[in-house]
Amino acid sequence: MIRLEGVTKRYADGTVAVDDLTLEAPTGKITVLVGPSGCGKTTSLRMINRMIEPTSGRILIDGDDTADLPAAQLRRGIGYVIQHAGLFPHRTVLSNVMTVPRLRGRSRAAARDRAMEVLELVGLPGDYARRYPSQLSGGQQQRVGVARALAGDPDVMLMDEPFSAVDPVVRESLQDEFARLQQELGLTIVLVTHDIDEAIKLGHRVAVLRVGGRLAQFSAPDELLAHPADDFVADFVGRDRGYRALSFVSEEVPLHHEEPIRLGADAPGPGTADGADPWRLVVDGEDHPQGWVHLPTLEGGPVGRADLQLGGTLADRGGSLRTLLDAALSSPSGRGVVVHEGRLAGTVRADEVVSVIQRTGRPTP
Ligand SMILES: Nc1ncnc2c1ncn2[C@@H]1O[C@H](COP(=O)(O)OP(=O)(O)OP(=O)(O)O)[C@@H](O)[C@H]1O
């Protein structure tokens, strides 16, 4: 656990960047520092590995005061990942990643093995190792940055805006992979971002800072959405927080059994639609949903991909109410498709999800 106790940083020109900050970042979890530009996020992060020395207060890692350790020794146990990855441009990916285990005293061979292992772990196997950073996409460079930090087997990782330099689609998938990796490896992470959605998605605990480096709220993300401490936090968290809070609520919602049509099977005529409902779900040979067909507009013959209407998101059985509601709202038929291990489990309607929300009375924005 990392504990900041009444930590203040006053720069030489008198700027108070962080003001009496107290918080605990639990072991094996992601703690996010979030807030507007200039609120002291980076300063707080860098005080943990003593790239910046606090003016007053203490920082403890697993009970040990970091001020009592030589800074170089402290940093060897702490991985550090920054925006744009901060790779050495004239060294290959492999050489970049090997620097950290080499600094920790591993032999060349052991450092190389470890580097290859972590590159694999972040999804950059084999050939990437020989490339130079300029031969990689922004997202791949960020992965190398994460691999380099992991290669030192750190107890703690500090990450400063690690995903903000990549485009939104790549960012989403990097975040997902990173969340999985963190859980798998049980890493203790402090992550800085100005993006509240990223904070809510990745953080087990989220510290919202206000300009002047004061802590506005320190909570689990669902609590932050449901009970913002004041107007500043409510504003910062955003207007659709009630809807976003549904991400944290999983409730049993009864599923309807759908009789799907198999891709390639003959389309039933319009008259055979169930009641007045013109929509039928199409699955492949293994029950993976493929899309919807609108019976009245089918021309007969086998149902092909060209007949499909896509556009609905899939929800996992047992997933959050937000994913179920989104599946229902985004489906052309009004029925959200629910899957279990990728196979059709049933469908759900938006009004049914909403009644569950009303019945359970959660969340309370
Ligand atoms: N070396 C320095 N000397 C004086 N003031 C500084 C110094 N470094 C940072 N500051 C000031 O301290 C405050 C906090 O800066 P910091 O970089 O920690 O904020 P931040 O929340 O990370 O900002 P951003 O999101 O814009 O990166 C700012 O007002 C900044 O101008």
From TrEMBL:
Domain of life assignment: Bacteria
Molecular function terms from GO: ABC-type quaternary ammonium compound transporting activity; ATP binding; ATP hydrolysis activity
Keyword Magnesium: no
UniProt domain ABC transporter: residue ranges: 2-237
Keywords tagged on the record: ATP-binding, Nucleotide-binding, Transport
E.C. code: 7.6.2.9
Enzyme class: translocase
Transmembrane segments: none
PROSITE patterns from the UniProt entry: ABC_TRANSPORTER_1, ABC_TRANSPORTER_2
Coiled coil: none
Classification via SUPFAM superfamilies: P-loop containing nucleoside triphosphate hydrolases
Family: Belongs to the ABC transporter superfamily.
Protein name: ABC-type quaternary amine transporter
Organism: Ornithinicoccus hortensis
